[in-house]
Amino acid sequence: MPEPLLTRDGRPAAELWPSSGLVHLNHGSYGRVPLAASRHRLGLVQEMEARTAGFMARAPERLAQARSLVAPFLGVEGDDLAFVPNASAGVSTALRSLPLPAGSEVVVTDHAYGAVRMGVDRAAREAGAQVRVATVPLEADADAAVEAIWSVVTDRTTMIVLDQITSGTARRLPVGPICARARGRGIVSVVDAAHAPLLLSDPVREANADVWVGNLHKFGAAPRGTAALVPHPDIADRLWPLIDSWGAPDPFPRRFDWQGSDDYTAWLAAPVSLQHLEDELGWEHIRAHAAMMADHAVDVITTALADRFDVDPTVEVGMPVDPIRLIALPAGLTEDPATLRARFLAANIEATFTNHDDRAFWRLSQHAYSTPADLESVLPRALDLLTGPG
Ligand SMILES: Cc1ncc(COP(=O)(O)O)c(C=O)c1O
Prior knowledge:
The chain is α/β, with parallel strands linked by helices. The protein contains 13 helices and 12 strands.
């Protein structure tokens, strides 16, 4: 049984976050921002409202500094990354900046995040290009996944859009080998690494993609609306922000540091989340704790489900993700994920559920503040909620 994670001076990690009255079993969707970062951001908002013109005039310079503070957490330099609002915006940036030629093909997998897939479909439709979907079995290991993805690449393929960690199926994809092979064929690789920053220790280098974008507001616990876009140096100067503004004449990444009048406080506060959690807990410890807690939670929930429903809820996932895990829901449960999410939320439990390939899953996602006691406090009530409003 894992012990609760403690700060370096012995306080429960959970004290770094606001007490919400909820049990959080789904850090992965929207993250949770530690109190210190929210307070820092509030200070920035107050400063912005008190001296707006001065605040805005200094924003690009402060954003450049924020980039350089975030960069070490991704193993890059400050000028290697641009801030964008989220992973979706990062993929849209790539699609708009590197348009698909008419008659070309773009490859995605059947695990692609729904909203990103819609963006790829629209870009392809507008360009007169085709989308080719690779089917990657949930249990496929790295070699099998490379083969499955590469099997739909043709001479017309000009772009591959790939998740580093998939959303609904909580698995990794072998982005490194695919990006390397794509580069050898002159195919642009775009890695949607929404979940990867801080969850993986070196995700940018692992992918070595033409365009990589990861959310700092998921495992990184930065204020929402904060993602890092890291292009390969050969491609960087071809990327333009979705909003053309006064930064336009500047080189990458400075042209992303001013995208019109906006609230830049989340980007400015992002380094505070990353550094604060490093100082208080250490990201190595957070990753290890979240992995241990996820193992424990999967054990506890699968045992409870097996007892209650007489089923085997274990799921075989090739290239699994330590802190984000899948548990199969019993086949007879027919509620859609949104209904289950809302029902759990009404019972003060943040949890998420997904579907893939006609199978339904509980997608569990743990973090520094997760404890066995939290989990115990919601079982077996959570099992009741799977079958009815309770
Ligand atoms: C793989 C993947 N891509 C994109 C997103 C979208 O993230 P955002 O809403 O921050 O753009 C998610 C969100 O969970 C995701 O898991």
